[in-house]
Specification:
The protein has helices at residues 2-90, 92-99, 106-109, 242-245; strands spanning 124-126, 129-134, 139-145, 152-164, 167-174, 187-190, 193-197, 206-217, 220-230, 238-240, 249-251. A hairpin with a 4-residue loop joins strand 2 and strand 3. The protein has 4 helices and 11 strands. The protein is elongated. The protein has 268 residues and is of the alpha+beta class.
């Protein structure tokens, strides 16, 4: 009887032990699955956090780029004012003579319109379209005058930067009036500097060369900075803004061609 009982207990042990092993194994697997699921959730949360941080960094970069463009514009204005002050101090006497022509010259340089040529503050009254003579071109170009624009521009094609005697130069042509024409030029001038500008169409900022050219409009003679803007065509390849007009001229929107066109063999 006792022997039979012992055999029965051994049989129970043989059955129970595997069950216990299976039970422990199942618990371990369940814990492992739960740990993997928790790790996956943690990874997904980290990815979401990283994506949010990346989006924030992109916004910050975009803001810094716009801020840099604003600072570049402000620096350009400041440099322009400094150059104008230097030029005004250097040529103040010659400008006064050019604004008030001698009586013997009044007939030859009198504009077609009979209104006053100079306003109450002594500034020359110009129209929205004038002939501007460029020293580098040796001739006159029809230009748009806009006192709402800060800088002066030349719409150009085939803009090329090159080196001459260790200095940076730029070669360009005037943008043609239509695709059938070829722009006048090429012309060459020392590169003053380059500026990054965001186009009006919202494209990525682009680098534009800036040159300083000597121009003559009527009796006004100025060293003016021009930004070279790459254009395929342009009806008026030259635009004069406040960088030229400041302190010496005003624009009358009702007038055009108030100053005579200088001849091709004109000189400064």
């Amino acid at each position: 009887m006792t022997r039979h009982k012992n055999n029965h207990m051994k049989s129970c042990h043989i059955i129970i032990l595997p069950l216990l092993v299976l039970s422990f194994t199942g618990c371990a697997q369940k814990r492992l699955i739960e740990a993997l699921q928790a790790s996956q959730q943690t990874s997904e949360q980290r990815i979401l956090v990283q994506e949010e941080q990346l989006a924030t960094q992109r916004q910050q970069i975009s803001y810094l780029e716009e801020r840099n463009l604003d600072l570049a514009d402000a620096l350009f204005d400041l440099q322009q004012e400094i150059e104008n002050l230097k030029f005004s101090q250097k040529h103040q006497s010659s400008q006064a003579k050019s604004i008030s022509p001698k009586p013997s010259q009044a007939t030859s340089e009198k504009p077609a319109m009979q209104e006053p040529q100079v306003d109450e503050s002594g500034k020359v009254i110009l129209g929205t379209v004038e002939w501007v003579w460029f020293d580098v071109m040796g001739g006159s170009v029809e230009a748009q005058l806009d006192d709402k624009l800060r800088s002066s521009s030349i719409y150009a094609s085939n803009i090329q930067l090159f080196e001459r005697d260790g200095d940076q130069w730029v070669r360009f042509q005037l943008a043609p009036a239509s695709s059938d024409d070829t722009g006048a030029g090429p012309y060459e001038s020392p590169l003053l500097r380059k500026v990054r500008v965001r186009p009006a169409n919202g494209d990525d900022p682009e680098s534009r060369p800036i040159v300083r050219l000597k121009v003559k409009l009527g009796t006004l003679i100025e060293d003016t900075e021009f930004t070279l803007v790459n254009r395929d065509t342009a009806e008026s390849p030259v635009v004069l803004g406040r960088s030229f007009l400041r302190d010496i001229a005003v624009v009358d929107e009702k007038r055009q061609h108030t100053q005579r066109k200088h001849s091709e063999n004109s000189s400064l």
